[in-house]
Design a protein that fits this description.
It is a single chain. With 178 residues, the chain is α+β, with helices and mostly antiparallel strands. 21% of the residues lie in helices and 39% in strands. It contains 3 helices and 9 strands; from the N terminus they run ααββββββββαβ. It has an 8-stranded antiparallel barrel with strand order 1-2-3-4-5-6-7-8. The chain starts with a helix and ends in a 5-residue tail after the last strand.
């Protein structure tokens, strides 16, 4: 590919990315928590369950670490152990509130300028357990500060997700073995 073709390809990608972000902005269509304390949310969360997708396929011991940055954004480090390759896998992204930082509606990106919804729909008063919905019903996570979660919390979150249209029978319950 010569310089002219490379420039055209890069221009097409830039225009496509801009159009995507303009025409399909991240929106929260679910009721999110409205009294979120972002500082308390920061730190390490263990994935308890998820609706599986390509990046997390075959992962155990999944954690998400959130760190508030000086520019107001949040660094996100997702990490898990790949059972097939027997290696740790990590992805670093960024997140930021969609509007009022007290609302649980954020957007997250692991692919440059393309963002997806990250909606905190339930969190307990001690910030030990959280239920997260994505931009659509394909993405859902139950998170905890510890790997062990009381059964009543799991059931509460699963029932809420089911009533909200999520295919909870497809949940992958994350193993923590490493």
């Amino acid at each position: 590919m010569d310089k002219k073709q490379s420039l055209l390809a890069l221009s097409a990608i830039a225009i496509g990315t801009a159009a995507y972000n303009i025409l399909k902005p991240v929106k929260s269509n679910v009721a999110v928590v409205d009294d979120l304390d972002l500082d308390r949310y920061m730190g390490v969360w263990h994935e308890v369950a998820r609706l599986d997708f390509f990046w997390e396929k075959d992962l155990t011991d999944v954690t998400a670490t959130y760190t508030k940055l000086s520019n107001g954004k949040i660094q996100v480090i997702n990490r898990g152990f790949d059972q097939k390759s027997k290696k740790w896998k990590q992805r670093i992204g960024k997140a930021k509130p969609l509007g009022d930082p007290k609302d649980g509606a954020l957007k997250v990106s692991f692919f440059g300028p393309i963002y997806a919804g990250y909606n905190i729909v339930h969190i307990d008063e001690d910030y030990k357990y959280a239920l997260i919905f994505g931009s659509n019903t394909d993405y859902m996570w139950i998170l905890s500060r510890d790997v062990d979660v009381p059964e009543n919390i799991k059931q509460k979150y699963v029932q809420y997700a089911s009533r909200s249209g999520y295919a909870t029978q497809k949940l992958v319950w994350t193993k923590h073995e490493q």
